[in-house]
Amino acid sequence: MKPGSTALAGLLAAAVAIAFADSSIVVLALPELYARFDTTIEGVAWVITAYNAAVAVTGLGLVLLVHRLNGAAVLACGLLVFLAASTACALAGSLSFLIGARTVQGVGAALLLAGALPVLAALKGSAASGARLWTLAGMFGAVLGPALGGVLTQAFDWRAIFAAQAPVAALSLLAVIWARPEGAGDEGWRPSLRRTLVPNTCLGLLFGALVGALFLAVLLVITVWGYSPLAGAAIVSVLPAATLAVRPLERRLTRPTAVSGGAALLAGGLVGLALLPSASVALAVCALALCGTGVGLAVPVLSQAALDLSAGLTRSGTLTIGVRHLGLVLALASIAPLLANQVPRAGDRAMLKATAVLLDSPVGLDKKVPVALDLRGAFARARAGETPDLAEPFNAHGARNDSKLAATRDDLVGTIEATITRAFRPAFFLSAAFAALALLVSAVFRRRNVA
Questions:
Q1: Are 127 and 314 in contact (CB under 8 A)?
Q2: How many CA atoms are closer than 13 Å to the CA of 38, on its beta-carbon side?
Q3: Domain ranges of the chain
Q4: Which residue of 3, 123, 127, 360 is surrounded by the most CB atoms within 10 Å?
Q5: Distance between CA 352 and CA 345 in Å, rounded?
Q6: 296, 210 in Cβ contact below 8 A?
Q7: What's 5-342+424-448's CATH class?
Q8: What is the C-alpha to C-alpha distance for residues 339 and 424, in angstroms, rounded to an integer?
Q9: Which of 54, 166, 47 is nearest to 109 (CA)?
Q10: 149-182, pLDDT tens digit by residue?
Q11: Cα–Cα distance measured from residue 272 to residue 428, given in angstroms and rounded to the nearest whole number
Q12: Cβ(266)–Cβ(208) below 8 Å
């Protein structure tokens, strides 16, 4: 291994992690984007969808020719495009510009990910070692995305998410230009679609299922339960923590058992999120831990199976990049409209129930009326895209010193949160269906990989 190869490999692994993290890194910033650009749920979802669609289309298109290109050149080009697009995202002044910049960023990410794979293999001295580092960086990047985005949003604002990516891309680009690492040329790739079809299909379905854990769960915690981005990041960080914790177990299990067990646990975690009766952080954390455990068991095994070292690392890697993000896009395209249809209806039901709670409370009219007027303003702000503090109208009129008013406050807020939480159920169940399909496909994987 050449001097500096370890440092360069570490830097490239960080870039790979960020490129995968970008699939979901803006999730905790969606409420802020929703309010900032005065858009809809479908509109703000395109900030995520545009990136993943660009990665999927570019990745699948590259399969036809990437094995004939120099990997280091593809990597440098991807880093340059990713750097420029990340800077543009940070400077975006409109939703349409942000979506356009995210699309370009996705193109750069696909090139970056495709080029990094053969370069890491060269830096690590073997295709297997390079693929292993690439896989682990990608897996942890994907599950760490929301938590990282939440910390940056809370500490600064949503623009910091993209501003923080630019230095990593710039340093990686300078390092690649300076070190001039070896890259892959024509690998003499032989068609191996049948060999990688099952693991790639499972990966696409599992990444689609992750939309429930990385998109829906975060929206629920932030927009419905009212947690700050930092608190939301702490809650969803249980997912990557579980993914990391289960790694020793994954290495002890047979490959079919790890895949089937992981898909089943991910599906179970998503069903758990769907069945949340109310705003319960403890239950949500348990469900997310199941999701993280499932990812930690299944994704590394499937990734190694999808990266066909004997038939051409670069091309099989590019194929799996496209398939993973295609699964994310299909899930987002299915789930976002469903959520957009369910949540406004739930909001109307929640308002009626909240009104009933307030009317039936033992609080006097002298406090009911001003609280009701303030609540009307809070609901209006919610429709405008803000995340209102529904407890504030009660606190402003003495709930801290009035036990009856405080009890009414708690009942009303709990009723609203429970009603809207249940509106997320169809979307969570749909996410779980992606994992259940992966479990069915994994049965084929089991037959082909008898331990």
A1: no
A2: 3
A3: 5-342+424-448, 343-423
A4: 123
A5: 11
A6: no
A7: mainly alpha
A8: 7
A9: 54
A10: 888 888 888 899 999 999 999 998 998 888 777 6
A11: 9
A12: no
